UniProtKB/TrEMBL annotation:
Residues 49-329 form the AB hydrolase-1 domain. This is AB hydrolase-1 domain-containing protein. InterPro entries: AB_hydrolase_1, AB_hydrolase_fold. It comes from Xylaria flabelliformis. It comes from the Eukaryota.
Amino acid sequence: MAYATPQPAIALPSSITFESIRLDTKPTACLECSKVQGAGHSGYNNILVVFLNGLLAPQSFWLPVMALMLRRLQIVESGIDNDVSRPQMLAYDRYGQGRTIDRDPGDEGKEEGYGHDTLDVVHDLHQLIGQAMRDSNNQSKRIMFVANSIGCAIARLYAQEYPGTLAGMLLLDSIMANSDFVSIFPDPDSPDFDPGSLPQDVTPEMLCETRRKFREVFHPSVKNPEGLDRRNLSALLPDADKPRLDQGFGGKAPLVTVVGHDPEWFAKESLQGSMETPISITMNYTNPTWHRYNQGLTKLTSPEKASGPIIAKDCGHFIQRDNPMFVADLACSMLENIAKDA
């Protein structure tokens, strides 16, 4: 994306380590992971924070967030690194993504580009979490997801597949899982299309061109480098506001914080990016649709456990890249609330 604020370099603490993990069921391939071991005796050390990537933002985008979270926890707890209480953390690149160069062994023999779906990713993630926690004395850690884009859909599906595990979700500009990303825009070729209903700065030609580009790039049938098949995602998650996630860790409803991009910033980013989407198209169609979806996400949990939609000022789709401090602050606030609810 061309429209982004340069971020200062953030030194990574030694508590962030890097490891290659082979799933027991897929021993021929490695997943590249970034890990932080839990420490201390407060309410944080029995929480596992898992960072979930989108399609285009690998785990490296989370490293500044992890570093800033550790720095804040260190200051809040004691100011002495060896005495700080911190959660266990895990970020990783899925097969064929980022530093994970190995392909998903389960894709062998399947059509190229359509090897595995989001449920397969969820099952792999469950194995990864189990293996990453083998060196932990507490096998019932409360899971907190910090997710971006399609990672938000993976977090929701994980909570559905493995009820009783989730304590909280921080959803950063979630993918609109029930959308084909084309129907957002009116179809000038439809028999009931009314040109008179268009905003003053939107033309039928602009709509046709935008629909064409979005169909070629964002439609769920479009293949991606990691071979993640999105064609059934709308069937898996047909609604933003359900199914509700009432059965979180300990039978309690999980915390859910929903964050959306800055509409004006995203519009400029979309214009200057490879799609060259006109600002009027983004402001009149994409942003309102996305905001309604985010409003639905806040209804996944009990009202008192929901926050948002919060607008990430001066941030586009990759909020963790554009403002890692903002994300770290929200994540630490959720950590505090999870610890209090123990």
